[in-house]
Amino acid sequence: MKYERLTREQLEELHEEFARFLASQQITKEEWDKIKTDQPKVAEEELDLFSDLVWEGVLNKVEYIEHFSPQHIFLFHFQEEVIDLIGIKLDNQAVDLQTTEGYNWLRNNLMNEDVNLYTSQKPITEDRNKDIFALVKQGARITKGDLYQYFQKIIQPTK
């Protein structure tokens, strides 16, 4: 398994897609029920394969990811060959960026000396999706990139 098995809730949400997945392998509902009962290891392997396919489909579409911690925000933009990062670091320990109050403080105090903005870039590895998945497992969220684009205009206004 390349990623991780979808949760029961996720599988329930994707039950129609899973049915099509089984149908693509010419497995009927009756056969699936029999596999679950008689060959639980095979059933587990099918769930793992389906989960990897779902994750792969989701990760292929990712362009932006955000990760918040109490004093940092990491905004990632996955381009074709590189990952661009905009980092926001607070030197003020009293502000927690994971709270509404802390985030509002940042919005109102972007030019405060306690706010440090920086950028970085690195090449995408051979397995782009695994890199993205690792960030998601660490708590990052897939986004549309609004926050990244907002801060990019602040850092590089001509872009």
Automatic annotation (TrEMBL):
InterPro entries: DUF6495 (IPR045470). It comes from the Bacteria. It comes from Psychroflexus maritimus. This is Histidyl-tRNA synthetase.
